[in-house]
Amino acid sequence: MPRPAGIDDQIEWLDDGTLLYGMPNDTPGDSDVWELKADGTSAPTLLIPHAWSPAVVRE
Fold it and tell me: How far apart are CA 26 and CA 29, in angstroms?
């Protein structure tokens, strides 16, 4: 039975309008980081394959 996809609980802001989150992919034990416009104007897009919880370093 396929396991339901879950979104990582560590969502991160990339900038003022973009959210990042991790979500398991089809490979057991693997995850990807996705980006999503916070205003809901577009579908999520894959940002970093084979990555876990996003973290943004600000200078």
Answer: 9
Total domains present in the chain:
1
1, two tokens: 């039975």
Domain range for 25:
1-59
* pTM confidence score: 0.81
* Inter-residue contact 44 to 54 (CB < 8 Å): no
- CA separation for the pair 47, 45 (Å, rounded): 6
* Average pLDDT estimate for 33-51: 94
HEC assignment per residue over the chain? CCCCCCCCCCCEEEECCEEEEEEECCCCCCEEEEEEECCCCCCCEEEECCCCCCCCCCC
